[in-house]
Amino acid sequence: MPTDARRLIRKMRGGAQAHLLEAADGHAYVVKFLNNPQHRRILVNEWISSTFLSYLGISTPAAAIVRLSEEFLAANPEVHLQLGTHRQPPDVGWHFGSRFPGDPARNVVYDFLPDSILETIENLPDFLGALVFDKWMGNADSRQAVFFRARLKEWIPGSEAHGLKMGFVAQMIDNGYIFNGPHWAFTDSAIQGLYFRPGVYREVRGLADFEPWLSRIVHFPEEVIDQAVKAIPPIWLDGDEETFDVLLARLLKRRARVPDLIEASRRGLVNPFPSWR
Ligand SMILES: Nc1ncnc2c1ncn2[C@@H]1O[C@H](COP(=O)(O)OP(=O)(O)O)[C@@H](O)[C@H]1O
Ligand SMILES: [Mg+2]
Question: Does residue 66's CB lie within 6 angstroms of at least one atom of ligand 1?
């Protein structure tokens, strides 16, 4: 069920012109609007990614459908998209929300960490899982994540840290360009999906390092796909239903190719896995 937007906290940077909004469920969400400047399909891509990443056990923010009412938009004219010189309000209705970890007034979330801290984060292997995911989904973008300091036990399932231990946690965000964004096609290049800091891949010695995510994808259940599709608000797909079904059929077929796609990233201009011989 959607949650209602209550208050604008701030606008975010980035091509989708997302807005950080407080919602009626008590959480804050980075919201991408249906009529965002990238494309309506970006929301479908984000939604599917969120479901799949969660199923695969890769850290990612909870997703929600955030509803903008006519009253909210009338009371918050600063919530708008800037298209050239033209201001465009978001559509009334349902949009994609990516949950902000904690309270934006008290918790700092970083887009980047210095290498020295990055390499100590508790769930660093999630970047290996994310690469398997990105290769499968044909993410035409490089990998993006956010980072924050928190109690590890609360954010990392299965963490062996003791109850109060604090540390940095990564969450995978911005999956708008899976399926090559609005094009809904698979473009496989060696470098796509890679994170821009090579340190996250330093320990990779072979395909076995991409487990358990690799096996989970090769055997990815069709039911998880069906469930994710059923939960997409119909207006996000409006007229695209058949095209999307064809795309998902191709996605299913690609499962078996994912190990090859990972290996192929070694044949780019720079080998991201220097320890893999
Ligand atoms: N769940 C989240 N929690 C905190 N910050 C987020 C979250 N999702 C996105 N952001 C922030 O918002 C910015 C824009 O979101 P992003 O998904 O990257 O959109 P774009 O497609 O416009 O690049 C990100 O660079 C990041 O700083
Ligand atoms: Mg981004």
Answer: no
Ligand nearest to the CA of 112: 1
Please give, one letter per residue, the 3-state secondary structure of 42-104.
HHHHHHHHHHHHHHHCCCCCCEEEEEECHHHHHHCCCCCEEECCEEECCCCEEEEEEECCCCC
The rounded Å distance from CA 14 to ligand 2 centre is 5
Domains: count for the chain: 1
- Global pTM reads 0.97
Q: Is the CB of 138 under 6 A from ligand 1?
A: no
State the residue range of the domain holding 260. Answer: 3-267
* pLDDT tens track for 19-71: 999 999 999 999 999 999 999 999 999 999 999 999 999 999 999 999 999 99
- The string of pLDDT tens digits covering residues 128-169 is 999 999 999 999 999 999 999 999 999 998 888 888 999 999
